[in-house]
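User: Predict structure, ligand NAP.
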Amino acid sequence: MTLLDGKKTSEAIQDEIAAEVAAIKAKGGKVPHLAAILVGNDGGSVTYVNNKVLACDRIGFGSSLIRYEDSVSEEELLNKIKELNEDPEVDGFIVQLPLPKHIDANKVLEAIDPKKDVDGFHPTNVGRMVAGLPAYLPATPAGILQLLKRYNIETKGKHCVVIGRSNIVGTPMSILMSKCTYPGEATVTICHRNTVDLAHHTRQADILIVAVGRPGLVTADMVKEGAVVIDVGTTRVPDETRKSGFRLRGDVDFDNVAEKCSYITPVPGGVGPLTIAMLMTNTLRAAKHEVYG
Ligand code: NAP
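Assistant: Predicted complex:
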């Protein structure tokens, strides 16, 4: 069994980006700039956004963090998005989710210029991804593709079973695995809450990708010998031995499943660390006008 090391892979990708930024700087080119909008003080969101800003510093990107109180109006937020859409200094930007209930998240995401939508959530980027056109790919599925690629895992002709159909993970993952590019060319099954006999499907998976948010959902009896298992789940469970008071658990019963696998991601340290690397990749692509020309 080989552990798919997301931390090491993420560092390698960020080192490659940093080298490219250094080369751009040396030639006197424009340094890529990522802006992030954060609404409110939710602990998880603050940490995620701070980590994104720190990553920008580390690899040499410019960055700006725009913060609002929970009470910000939808109109004010939309005005800021318009401003960022038109700001030539900003190559890409993100609006950290979730947003307060009085703000329509879809309206906000659709207001972002697709050319600057480095989270890849705008319907234009989703549509382009489905059509096989150049697009910003959402970070988590793109990170999983990188893991498969960098560990040279064969995907062509394999049966890939994805559990979960969210817009940010399960659905784009299933589409990307079915595309006629590597990693892809797989036969894909997508499972959800109403799937009858989940284990019947998972046992057929050469590649099993689980994005649900239910710790321990996938047990050893549900996994085929030699399968590649990618665990996206990250649920905070109480843990008094930790300073934070919690630890992260995946959707897969790692201790019992790992011994049956050819490759498996740990939680934490698997898919999670790739998210930032892929956001940085999208920002670099935005700065280089790679997607929309
Ligand atoms: P989500 O929007 O809540 O979607 C969960 C999906 O799981 C839904 O499609 C749901 O089906 C399905 N589901 C729920 N219970 C199920 C069951 N018993 N059997 C089969 N399917 C079931 O979650 P998400 O945003 O995709 O995130 C999933 C997990 O990944 C979470 O733990 C999240 O924290 C984690 N995550 C991690 C990263 C990262 O590491 N970077 C990024 C994103 C998400 P229905 O559609 O039928 O309701």
